[in-house]
Amino acid sequence: MQKTNPGRFFEDYELGMVIDHAVPRTVSGGERALYHALYPMRHALYSSDEFARDCGLPAGPLDDLAAFHIVFGKTVPDVSLNAVANLGYAEGRWLKPVWPGDTLRASSEVIGLKQNSNGRTGVVYVHSKGFNQNDECVMEYKRWVMLRKRDNDAPAPETVLPDLKPVLAPSDLVIPEGLDFSGYDFTLAGEPHRLGDYEIGEKIDHVDGVTIEEAEHMMATRLWQNTSKVHFDVTARPDQRLIYGGHVISMARALSFNGLANAQMIVGLNGGAHANPCLAGSTVKAWSEVLDKAETNAPGVGAIRLRLVATKGGSPFELKGADGKYLPDVLLDLDYWALMPV
Amino acid sequence: MQKTNPGRFFEDYELGMVIDHAVPRTVSGGERALYHALYPMRHALYSSDEFARDCGLPAGPLDDLAAFHIVFGKTVPDVSLNAVANLGYAEGRWLKPVWPGDTLRASSEVIGLKQNSNGRTGVVYVHSKGFNQNDECVMEYKRWVMLRKRDNDAPAPETVLPDLKPVLAPSDLVIPEGLDFSGYDFTLAGEPHRLGDYEIGEKIDHVDGVTIEEAEHMMATRLWQNTSKVHFDVTARPDQRLIYGGHVISMARALSFNGLANAQMIVGLNGGAHANPCLAGSTVKAWSEVLDKAETNAPGVGAIRLRLVATKGGSPFELKGADGKYLPDVLLDLDYWALMPV
Amino acid sequence: MQKTNPGRFFEDYELGMVIDHAVPRTVSGGERALYHALYPMRHALYSSDEFARDCGLPAGPLDDLAAFHIVFGKTVPDVSLNAVANLGYAEGRWLKPVWPGDTLRASSEVIGLKQNSNGRTGVVYVHSKGFNQNDECVMEYKRWVMLRKRDNDAPAPETVLPDLKPVLAPSDLVIPEGLDFSGYDFTLAGEPHRLGDYEIGEKIDHVDGVTIEEAEHMMATRLWQNTSKVHFDVTARPDQRLIYGGHVISMARALSFNGLANAQMIVGLNGGAHANPCLAGSTVKAWSEVLDKAETNAPGVGAIRLRLVATKGGSPFELKGADGKYLPDVLLDLDYWALMPV
After folding, report:
1. CATH code at C192-342
2. ipTM metric
3. Roughly how many angstroms between the first and final C-alpha of chain C, as a whole number?
4. What is the mean pLDDT of chain A?
């Protein structure tokens, strides 16, 4: 009997199937410290327990993207080990903060299937959820990947495409219990800009850049127990290790502190594209565009919808060419909702 | 008076001498997080406090190899700073799990001495033990190293060779208090294979590989407070820094999850050879061979004896050439006992 | 309105101005573990909670230099983002240990101003303080940097130079509450040398070296939330990333264990010069010179004043050329007070 995990192929998925992913993970102050060592994170709510308490939370939570990476990492062996491409994300929501001491596990439900016309590949849509030790869902997202078929002669499943929201409505966003920005300390947070100071359509060049090293992206990706071999094994690809897309997301988000220091908590992921592969030696920079703003019911708390673009060169604010395709220096185009003092 | 530690030479050891090693070390969730960042660790018992509790333990312990590295690191300044070669290990036993908050210290007793016929070097055998803050022995092992003499004219000691077991018997293994695999969750653990599914003689290619970077092995080796300069100082050797052999052990053990996810706790180290030096840039892969199986008295808990081989190339399952010597791509040949649900 | 931080220029400072720095930071066992992974730290008081308790402290504190780096990092966006040069330190004092769970913030008061004769730059002197969550000052230091003017036509401020002590007197040093070295365990600490064993003028070559990697110094510098782009962005300088001077300080201090294992707690920083820039690939070594010794009122606790020199080559004990300038291989010349058993 084969003991190792060969990964799943397109015909291994059925609509409605629920996969419980392996290897639950307990987080501590160690994960928080490593997140600060790997990314230039400065958002005060995640850096300081005292600042978080002054905002109505019991302590500083684990970074929202770290929670995402842990949940995502658990899905890899069951969803994307054999993926030809990671096609997209939608309807990502953070439902509960993750605290040091929490243990996370994950499961995914198959919500869509479509065999490609070539008969050799297909697209699988999953709804993935992360749970804490109390079986509370801490975050969820939908994701679709292209997978090879094991047997090209296997019959095509009925095509079912999920109905995905292009953008989460403000009413879809869940505000962490107790969050209160009415006494927000802008000096300690690092910038004076509140939601009212941002205009829809405004673009911000975050200025700073970070040149990425192999050791760093591998440590990050392992920390999330993501086992995809292209990130670790230089002999598995013709050229260089491919950097986990989530490493670029976290790097760009951290860089966005400079101009968006008060976009504190990420509560919604509307969509995202890894426009081009990132390799070690690239210098990652970032810019953002304000896409929308909204009120919430929590005291002093507003929501800001942002496009976050990571690049490895080129000029800020350039995204796509005349052909509608991403420019070669664009690494990431992410669309998310964050909470900001009004 | 010379203030720095010159290390010990062969004639500095006497049979029965006990050396208390310096620099006790308290571990926390930080060491656990770093272990997960440095190695692709996925064994559920070490990743999740909840999984560990469901197996009868109070929490997820520090990885057994991390405990070994800490104890080993403490012995380096007193045992192997001037070692010409690290010749072997035997009778390694893990006696108590190490928990975040524990403080470890170590001591070694000289149990054997043999001057080499060249008169310039000799072999020292030590029995090293690690203790926690309650003076409980958490692990022990025997090790022998070749050391230079300071003074070639110093008289040879009486040759005493310790009586070392080639393999620990199942009855030598200590099962952690409370361990119970009768309700073991194979889904959360990541693989369905139980002890009965493995056959003696079975070989498993763990498939995945990791290309090693200088920054990673140095961070790991420093974390264990191992001060051997060949690991850190590129000017101390003709070519490249030599990677601590324990880094290769941990990397190979982590890779072995793929096929041996349920070989949870390491309780015995029968022997091990660092067959060839490992340098940064090498892509480490691993394969295992089932050497033996045994029952234990703990509910649902069996023991599996494994050969773990790390390579930097070549085909899996190749170990030695026609001359009986390790092939040049073999890095490690380790023989250990782990606990697995029956 | 510009959202990103352009940094301050010389004319943005006024005498007596107090700047509250952003982004408070909670530390945990994670920061402690990372400090041990990044530097070959072995001082027992910081490595072991048990050893620290035997010395009268409630637990092992965060390394004193880690506390310094955190406070320093907070000042960077307000003080040195546009610095042409970091000119010096004086009167650094550690007033309270920092414990896991503490949250640090920082503020700086402008205590001196002097426009340079070229009319384009000036020197700003600040008195920076770090506070814990109880508003207790945990450390303080004075520092001066050269800054560009935004507008060369801006009028020069009145020149005010602070009165800085060239060396802290023993009576200026603050001994941590409860510290007691009367039962100090020299075996566990790693060396037998007490204060009486060192002579003023004695020089110690710490022997060991560490070759520095890009990934390591960037992780360290990010951990302290230091945002100075020259440390991270290879495109921001003509050649290579410039390593944060504090990384060299911590590396040299850790290497000094070999010969100064009992110089446990740093309580005073008399001055320091980053003599030459450090780049990745350099092999850092260190030597020390005993500059002074003193008694304290705490039981068994003495103070030793040390020069700590980091080099990237050359012979130990060489510091300056015939021209009085630092030799090109000298990286750091630091003057500090540490506590040592008498």
Report:
1. 3.10.129.10
2. 0.96
3. 60
4. 96
